[in-house]
Amino acid sequence: MLATRSLLFNALFYLNLVVLMIVGLPTMLFGRKAVFALARLWGAISVWLLEAICGLKLEYRGVENIPPGAVLIAAKHQSFLETFALLKYAPDFAIILKRQLTYVPLFGLYLIVSQQIAIDRGRGRQALQQITAAAKTVFAAGRQVFIYPEGTRRVPGAPPKYKQGAAALYAGTGVPCLPVAVNTGLFWRRHGFLRRPGVAVIEYLPVIAPGLDRDAFSERLESTIETACARLNAEALAKDPQLADALADGANSDAKAPHSA
Prior knowledge:
This protein is of the alpha/beta class. The protein is built from eight helices and seven strands.
């Protein structure tokens, strides 16, 4: 039944995505806020499908920690689930993403109209300067910027590999940072087909105020997120010990193959 439900969900999930992208084409005529409304509809339908078909519920915690206006949202990235689940509490945002995504037919147009921050990861320091300059414009408009501090998805239990992007933005823009912890990868695995039942948690943690130096910020951000993720993982395992195999795979992931971020 798990495989059957996962197959049904995956089919409806991608069908919903394609249909909304086609039907929603007129929203691009009305600018980024109309596109965001469409994106949040996609996210809400996807969350509903997860619960209705797979028995996977989504729980948000710490919503009271979300400040109004300009804020850097640094979220742990374990699965595709948080890509749409995080949309619920981000009214006007820009996500830092690789430029190649803007070349994807139709989808790329939505990214451009909604004024996302597309970068060339291969440019190193120049890419960081590009990110900071673009983020300043976004923050000046009172919007939020999403960044995944490790640059890509990391499976639960894998050793953290935080990059310099979040620290560069924090130091270069002077805005507060909102860390976000998740345990989503236990239920929606990075390269897995199955969608396991349970309760996936997205937790908004206390804001890190501006003013720390880059090293102190980097250490605090990683410690804050990883400690919270470990707690959420342990909580999920206490409810469903079968999830332990996902953590075990994560702990051994870097030994099995080199990581490409």
